[in-house]
Specification:
heterodimer; A: about 325 residues; mainly alpha; ABC transporter involved in vitamin B12 uptake, BtuC; two-stranded antiparallel sheet; about 70% helix; globular; B: about 525 residues; alpha/beta; Rossmann fold
C-alpha cells in the first residue's frame, strides 16, 4: 500500500506530469471547442472524431510532401473544414439526421486515412517520420526549477489552444455574431423572424468546429512526434464531446473539463511508468480505463446541471 | 366613410379610384388588396381586402382556419401571396421577407412567442439589430434603449431577467418591446390574449390604448368577441378565407359579429333543459394535495357530483384547480382525505383502474395530456383502452375494429378533416379537443372530470363541445367542470363552486347568483360573509 501512495506522490511532484497534462489536454481542448461552436448554433457534431483523424493525417501528408510542417497544418485545416462542410451540407442544407451524418463522417475518415496511408506511404499501420512543428523554446526559462520543465519547450499549438479558448469566449458571449449563434441554437424560428440567416450561422458554427478539431488532430501527428498511425484519434473526439457537455457548452467550461481528462490520462501514463509498483503488462490495460471511469463519474454527477442548447440536434426546416 | 360598413362598397370605391387612375390610400396605415394565397388543396385567402386606418386598433376576427394568421403572415413577409397588393401608408410596398416588413415599420407579436428562452430580455429585444462598440455587442446601450421604451409605453420588464424565468404576461411585454425597438409603427398581435389570465389581459389592453394614444396602428387578431368590443375601433371579419364583414366596433354587437364569423346565428348561451339529477356518484372529502414545489395547493376541499348534473368549479387560474383535477383522476398523489367513486374509496388507485370503473378525463392541456400528437387519430381514439377486449385479443391489436370504430367517432363528433389517418398534431385545436371528447365519451363513463374544455377554441367548436357536454349530462353522466371562463361556467353548470387558494369559497346555483358575487368569491371572499353583509 505504501508503494502505491509513494508512486502517486511521485507522479504529482514530477513536472513531467504537468507538462504531459498540457500536451494531453491540447487536442481535447481544440476538439471540445469545435463542439462548442457547432452545438451552440444547434448542430450536434459527433464527426469531431473523424475530423481529428483526417486532420492528423493531413498534417503528416502536408509536412511529408512539402517538408514544411506549417504547410502540414494548412493541409490538416483544409481537410478538416472539408469534412465539416460535408456534415454541414447533409445536416443543415438537407436536414439530415446529425448523428447519422456524423457517424458516416467518422467512418469515411477512417476509410480515407486507412486507404491513403497504404497508397501514399506504402505500408499499413503508420507513416514515415516527418518534420513536426518546431517547439517554442523559452531559452533560459527552461532552467527555472520545476516550471522550466513544464513550460520550457511546448508546441505552439498548446498556446494556440488556450488562446482559442479566450477568443471563443469573447466571440460567443460578447459579440453580435455570438449572440446570433446562441439564438440560432436555442430558437432558430425566433432568430429567423428577426431576419437572421439561420443556415449561414449554422454553417459558420460547423465549419469552425472543422478548423478546431483538425487543429487538435494535427497536434496529435505533427505536434511533437511527426508521425501518423492508423486510427490515431482513438476516441478523443468522443472524450472532447464529453468535455463539452461537462463544460456546459461554454468554451471555458469545456477547457477545464478537457484539462481534467488530459490530467487523468497523464496520471495514468506516469503511474504506469513507476518502477516501484512492479506492474504486470495486463494490468496496464486497467489503468488505461482511468480517463473513461472519470468521464462516467463526472458525467453521472453532472446530470441535470448541464443543459444543451434547446434546439441542439434539431434541423431547422423553413416552411 | 360608407365603405367601412359594407365590403362591397369598398369594391365600388376602389373601382372609382382605378378609373381616376390613382388610389388614395394615404389615410390608411395598411391596405391589403385582393390578396390570394393558395396552399396545397386549400385556398387560404380568397381575394381578401383589409383596410386599417392610421392610429386605430383594428380587430381581425374569424374562426380558427379562417385565414387570419395566413393574411398577417403575408403582411409580415413570412409567406408571399400568390397575387394581390399591399400598400403601407398609401404606398405600394413589396414585402418579401420579415426584413422588408421591419423596414416598412411593421412588427408582429406571434401567438407562440418568438423568444429565445435562455437569453436575457435585453438580448432578445436587440437580437438582429444589436448596438455595437467596435467588434463587440454593446449591452449597456441596449439596456438604456429598452428602459426608455419601457417607460414611454408603460411596459415594465426587468432588462436582465432570463426569459424562461418570466411569466407569460411579461414575456408578451418583451415581444411588444422587441417590435417597438425595431421602430414599428404598425403592430400585428396574433391572438395575444389566448395565453393570458384575465388580469394580464386587462394589463395588455391598457398597453394597447397607450400605444394607440402615441399614434401606433394596431392589428389585433382574435376570436373572442368581448375583447373586440372592449378595445378595438373597427373590425374585419373573415370566414373560410374570405372577408365576410367590415364594421365599426361602435356600430355592431357581439351577436352580429358572431353571425359574420360563423355564417349563421350562434347560441351564445347554451340551451338546456333542467337537470334530471340522480344519485350521488362521486365525492371528495377533505382533500389535500401538494403542487410540484411541495406547497399545499388544495387545502381541504369537499365536493360531490350526482348523476345527470354539471358541477362547475370557477376561479382564477392557479388556485389549485389543476391539482384538484389531477388528484381526482389519479395523476397526482393525495396527501390527505378521500376520493370516493361509486361508493368505493379510490383515493390512491391507478388512473387505469379509475378509467375501468367508468371515470373519464378531459385534461386541461390537450397536447400534453390529451393526445399523442405523433399518432394517427385511430390510435388516439383507443388510448387507455388499447387492451380492452374490443380492441385487443390479448396480444395483437384488432386493427379493423379499431379503424371501424374510429371512423364512426370521426363522423359522430364531426372531426375535420374527416380522416382517421391524420396525425393528432395536424388537427386544429378545436378538432383535437373533439377527438379527446369523442374518446372519453365513447366508453360510456359515469363520471367525467372536464378541465378547460374550450380554451383557445373558436366559437363554432365551443358551441359543439358545449352541446356535447350537455347531452352527456342528459344521459346521466355526472360532470365536474373546471374552467377559467366565467361565461362557460355560467352557461353549463347546474351548481357552481368557487375556488380560491385551494379552498372552496362557496356554492351557488347560476340562477341565484351574479357575476359580481362570483367575482368576489374568486377574489377570496367567502359566500357566507357576502350573504351576511347583504342581510
Amino acid at each position: 500500500m505504501n508503494a502505491w501512495i509513494q508512486a502517486i506522490i511521485n507522479v504529482f511532484i514530477n513536472p513531467i506530469f504537468y507538462k504531459s497534462t498540457l500536451n494531453q489536454s491540447t487536442p481535447l481542448i481544440f476538439a471540445a471547442l469545435g463542439g462548442v461552436y457547432s452545438e451552440t448554433t444547434g448542430v450536434v457534431n459527433i464527426a469531431l472524431e473523424g475530423i481529428m483523424l483526417i486532420g492528423a493525417f493531413g498534417g503528416v501528408v502536408g509536412s511529408y510532401f512539402t517538408g514544411n510542417p506549417w504547410y502540414g497544418l494548412a493541409v490538416a485545416l483544409l481537410l478538416g473544414v472539408s469534412m465539416a462542410a460535408l456534415h454541414a451540407w447533409a445536416s443543415i442544407r438537407y436536414s439530415g439526421d446529425q448523428i447519422i451524418s456524423g457517424a458516416a463522417i467518422i467512418l469515411l475518415a477512417q476509410g480515407i486515412t486507412g486507404f491513403s496511408l497504404v497508397e501514399l506511404f506504402g505500408k499499413p499501420g503508420s507513416t514515415d517520420l516527418v518534420r513536426s512543428i518546431p517547439l517554442v523554446n523559452l531559452g533560459s526559462f527552461e532552467k527555472t526549477p520545476f516550471f522550466g520543465k513544464i513550460f520550457g519547450s511546448l508546441s505552439p499549438l498548446v498556446y494556440i489552444a488556450f488562446a482559442s479558448v479566450i477568443f471563443s469566449w469573447y466571440l460567443i458571449y460578447k459579440t453580435k455574431l455570438g449572440l446570433r449563434m446562441r439564438s440560432v441554437g436555442n430558437n432558430p424560428e425566433a432568430a429567423d423572424t428577426l431576419g437572421i440567416n439561420v443556415y449561414n450561422i449554422r454553417y459558420f458554427g460547423v465549419l469552425m468546429s472543422g478548423i478546431l478539431a483538425a487543429c487538435g488532430g494535427a497536434f496529435l501527428s505533427i505536434g511533437e512526434l511527426g508521425q501518423f498511425t492508423e486510427n490515431m484519434s482513438n476516441g478523443r473526439g468522443f472524450i472532447a464531446l464529453a468535455a463539452m457537455i461537462i463544460g456546459n457548452w461554454s468554451p471555458t467550461g469545456a477547457m477545464w473539463a478537457a484539462i481534467l481528462f488530459g490530467a487523468a490520462s497523464a496520471f495514468n501514463d506516469q503511474l504506469q511508468s513507476q518502477g516501484i509498483l512492479h506492474l504486470a503488462t495486463n494490468t496496464q490495460y486497467l489503468f488505461g480505463m482511468i480517463p473513461y471511469i472519470i468521464t462516467l463519474i463526472v458525467v453521472g454527477g453532472l446530470v441535470g446541471k448541464s443543459r444543451a442548447p434547446s434546439a441542439d440536434g434539431i434541423p431547422y426546416i423553413k416552411d | 366613410m360608407v365603405g367601412e360598413i359594407f365590403p362591397y362598397l369598398f369594391v365600388f370605391e376602389r373601382m372609382v379610384f382605378v378609373e381616376k387612375g390613382k388610389k388614395d390610400y394615404s389615410d390608411y396605415a395598411v391596405v391589403m388588396e385582393q390578396i390570394v394565397k393558395k396552399f396545397p388543396g386549400v385556398l387560404a385567402n380568397d381575394h381578401v381586402d383589409l383596410f386599417v386606418k392610421r392610429g386605430e386598433i383594428h380587430a381581425l376576427v374569424g374562426e380558427n382556419g379562417a385565414g387570419k394568421t395566413t393574411l398577417m403572415s403575408q403582411l409580415y413577409g413570412l409567406i408571399n401571396p400568390n397575387s394581390g397588393k399591399i400598400y403601407i401608408n398609401g404606398v405600394e410596398t413589396k414585402i418579401k421577407n420579415p426584413n422588408d416588413a421591419i423596414t416598412a415599420k411593421i412588427g408582429m407579436v406571434h401567438q407562440h412567442f418568438m423568444l429565445v428562452d435562455r437569453l436575457s430580455v435585453v438580448e432578445n429585444v436587440v437580437l438582429g439589430m444589436e448596438p455595437s462598440r467596435g467588434p463587440f455587442f454593446a449591452i449597456d446601450k441596449a439596456r438604456d434603449q429598452i428602459k426608455k421604451l419601457s417607460k414611454r409605453f408603460g411596459l415594465y420588464v426587468e432588462p436582465n431577467a432570463i426569459i424562461e424565468d418570466l411569466p407569460v404576461g411579461s414575456q408578451q411585454r418583451v415581444e411588444i418591446i422587441k417590435v417597438l425597438y425595431r421602430g414599428a409603427e404598425i403592430l400585428v398581435l396574433d391572438e395575444p390574449t389566448a395565453v393570458l389570465t384575465p388580469q394580464e389581459t386587462e394589463e395588455l389592453f391598457k398597453i394597447l390604448r397607450t400605444l394607440k394614444s402615441q399614434g401606433k396602428t394596431i392589428i389585433f387578431i382574435t376570436h373572442k368577441l368581448h375583447e373586440i368590443m372592449a378595445v378595438t375601433d373597427s373590425v374585419t371579419v373573415m370566414r373560410l378565407g374570405k372577408v365576410t364583414g367590415i364594421v365599426k366596433t361602435s356600430e355592431t354587437n357581439s351577436r352580429e359579429l358572431a353571425r359574420m364569423m360563423v355564417g349563421r346565428d350562434v347560441l351564445l348561451r347554451v340551451e338546456k333543459d333542467k337537470a334530471k339529477v340522480g344519485t350521488e356518484i362521486f365525492k371528495v372529502e377533505d382533500l389535500h394535495v401538494k403542487e410540484n414545489r411541495g406547497i399545499e395547493a388544495v387545502k381541504g376541499v369537499n365536493l360531490s357530483v350526482r348523476r345527470g348534473e354539471i358541477v362547475g368549479v370557477a376561479g382564477v387560474a392557479g388556485n389549485g384547480q389543476t391539482e384538484l383535477v389531477e388528484a381526482i383522476t389519479g395523476l397526482r398523489k393525495v396527501e390527505e382525505g378521500h376520493v370516493i367513486f361509486k361508493k368505493t374509496n379510490i383515493t390512491n388507485i391507478s388512473p387505469k383502474r379509475r378509467r375501468e370503473m367508468g371515470m373519464g378525463h378531459i385534461p386541461e392541456d390537450r397536447l400534453k395530456h390529451g393526445l399523442v400528437t405523433s399518432f394517427p387519430l385511430y390510435y388516439n381514439f383507443i388510448l387507455g383502452r388499447h387492451d380492452s377486449p374490443q380492441f385487443c385479443d390479448g396480444s395483437f391489436l384488432k386493427m379493423p375494429e379499431i379503424k371501424r370504430s374510429s371512423e364512426e367517432l370521426v363522423k359522430r363528433f364531426d372531426v375535420r378533416p374527416p380522416s382517421i389517418d391524420i396525425l393528432g398534431a395536424n388537427l386544429s385545436g378545436g378538432n383535437q379537443q373533439k377527438v379527446i371528447i369523442a374518446r372519453e365519451f365513447s366508453f360510456n363513463p359515469d363520471f367525467m372530470a372536464v378541465a378547460q374544455p374550450t380554451r383557445g377554441l373558436d366559437i363554432g367548436a365551443i358551441e359543439f363541445i358545449h352541446k356535447t357536454i350537455i347531452s352527456m349530462r342528459d344521459k346521466g353522466v355526472g360532470i365536474l367542470l373546471v374552467s377559467m371562463e366565467l361565461e362557460e361556467i355560467f352557461s353549463l353548470s347546474d351548481r357552481i363552486l368557487v375556488m380560491y387558494e385551494g379552498q372552496i369559497m362557496g356554492e351557488v346555483t347560476p340562477d341565484a347568483t351574479s357575476t359580481e358575487e362570483i367575482g368576489l368569491m374568486m377574489a377570496g371572499h367567502r359566500l357566507e360573509d357576502l350573504r351576511a353583509q347583504e342581510a
